[in-house]
Design brief:
The chain has 461 residues and is mainly beta. The chain has one helix at 2-21, and strands at 31-33, 37-44, 52-58, 64-71, 79-83, 86-87, 90-96, 101-108, 119-129, 132-143, 146-153, 157-159, 165-173, 178-182, 186-189, 195-197, 200-204, 213-217, 234-236, 243-246, 248-251, 255-260, 270-273, 276-278, 283-295, 298-300, 304-317, 320-324, 336-339, 349-361, 369-372, 378-386, 396-402, 410-412, 417-419. Residues 11-17 have low confidence and may be disordered.
Length: 461
């Protein structure tokens, strides 16, 4: 009896093992595919794309044979496929163990001779098993561009809005030369490609969204398109002079703008008019003993929004400087730090902040404005809203609103959505400024004549 029982148990185990080791051939066999479409955001010609992938999962308790996994466009498709480690436009006889899976990796490359406007590149992957077919759609936006690698601007140059500009290696504006960027230009910068200016940079954007000039990283695919530190930033070095950026949007850099030393002439080294600097990992603006004039600018959600080190001359009027901790950048540093020293050397400091907002939330910062200076250097805060627990010492201040939330229009940290307009009727920043010669706001809307203006870069409409 005992021997018979052992024989029966052994037979059952053997039958189950054989079943798992055999292939399911029924057309009712079940597979899951982790994506029904692979979508690639704008892919620049010659650059290719980030590889995306999906899984084919055998949900059965027996092995499954995939007759084929076929790129429908074949070898001439702009897409390239790798199935279970094999690069091929068609893979045949692929075994998937019971309750196991295989990966399919897909990359797209765009014809550099293609049109100079965005175009859609489509293909599909057909998965055939047991007489059944499943499809995974492939879709990419492709665009041609000006590709600049290790580019030196050695004579005056003007960029126009005919194609995007993709910068690889570096872009260098030589001493004495001017790079002018016309309205509507889009500049996409690779992760290791700084923009270095020893000469002059002039950005001539205009107020409409389509006419602004955008600087950002060249990774436009999810999730990388919104990551900070996607590219190094713009560096204005000692010889640089007469730089003017108007309606420029600088996003997702490491240090968006770094400026060192005073201008070689009597003008401001850098003038920022109606600019947006956002989501920079280390600093939005970092200045070392330099000279900056900024009006109607938004500097938001940076590691250090504005850092002034070792003196210089600065004027910020109608600027919104704000940060909220999020899963990209933790708000652990004041939105404004001003100092006449770098810890070793000290230089003269003269700074004026008028009609500005300095605000931060969800972080570890109690004092959003920190001033470190000695001597008679002038740091003047005139009609501002800020969040501080310890008022900076040695400053001149007039009409300061402290620790009253500015009531920005809409802040959704989880969705990375930030609207710093003052559309709420109870905002303390509304009608809280002093009149200046700045009669328009960042949107190009008028500041009401005869009335006190709002603080920050936006006028309530």
């Amino acid at each position: 009896m005992k021997t018979a029982l052992l024989f029966t148990l052994s037979s059952i185990i053997l039958l189950v093992a054989c079943k798992k080791d055999s292939f399911i051939t029924s057309p009712d066999a079940i597979i899951s595919i982790s994506a029904d479409t692979l979508h690639y955001d704008t892919v620049f010609t010659e650059v290719g794309s980030v590889t995306q992938s999906f899984k084919i999962i055998n949900n059965n308790n027996q092995k499954l044979m995939l007759s084929s996994v076929r790129l429908m466009g074949g070898a001439t498709s702009p897409y390239k496929m790798n199935v279970d480690g094999i690069a091929t436009p068609e893979a045949n006889g692929i075994e998937i163990a019971a309750n196991d899976s295989v990966y399919v990796f897909v990359q797209v490359n765009v014809d550099p001779a293609a049109s100079n406007i965005p175009f859609i590149i489509r293909d599909s992957i057909q998965i055939t098993f047991n007489g059944s077919d499943r499809l995974v759609q492939l879709e990419a936006w492709g665009q041609n561009a000006h590709f600049l690698r290790d580019e030196v601007i050695s004579t005056d140059v003007t960029w126009t809005n005919d194609l995007p500009y993709v910068i690889q290696g570096y872009l260098y504006v030589d001493d004495g030369q001017v790079l002018t960027i016309e309205k509507g230009c889009r500049i996409y910068v690779h992760a290791d490609a700084p923009i270095v200016v020893d000469g002059t940079l002039k950005v001539k954007g205009e107020k409409d969204t389509i006419d602004r000039v955008y600087f950002r990283g060249d990774r436009l695919d999810e999730p990388y398109k919104d990551f900070p530190a996607a590219w190094p930033g713009i560096y204005f070095r000692a010889p640089s002079r007469d730089n003017v950026l108007t309606y420029a949007v600088i996003k997702n850099s490491y240090q968006a703008i770094a400026v060192e030393d005073p201008s070689p002439n009597a003008n401001a080294k850098l003038t920022l008019n109606e600019c947006v600097i956002d989501n920079s990992y280390d600093a939005g603006i970092i200045a070392l003993n330099s000279n900056i004039v900024a009006t109607n600018c938004q500097i938001s959600n940076c590691g250090k929004n504005i850092a002034v080190v070792r003196g210089g001359s600065y004027s910020f009027t109608h600027c919104t400087v704000a940060s909220y901790s999020n899963n990209y950048i933790q708000h652990n540093a004041p939105v404004l730090t001003v100092s006449n020293t770098d810890g070793t050397n000290t230089a003269s400091l003269n700074a004026l902040f008028r009609n500005c907002i300095f605000w931060g939330e969800n972080g570890l910062v109690e004092d959003e404005v920190v001033v470190v200076k000695s001597g008679s250097d002038v740091v003047n805060f005139d009609y501002n809203l800020w969040k501080v627990k310890n008022t900076p010492e040695g400053i001149i201040s007039n009409n300061i609103i402290n620790d009253q939330p500015p009531q920005f229009d809409s802040i959704d940290v989880a969705k990375h959505f930030y609207d710093f307009r003052l559309n709420k009727k109870n905002s303390p920043a509304v009608d809280a400024g002093t009149n200046t010669t700045i009669i328009l706001d960042l949107d190009g809307n008028p500041r009401q004549a005869g009335l006190k203006p709002d603080l920050g870069c936006f006028e309530k409409q």
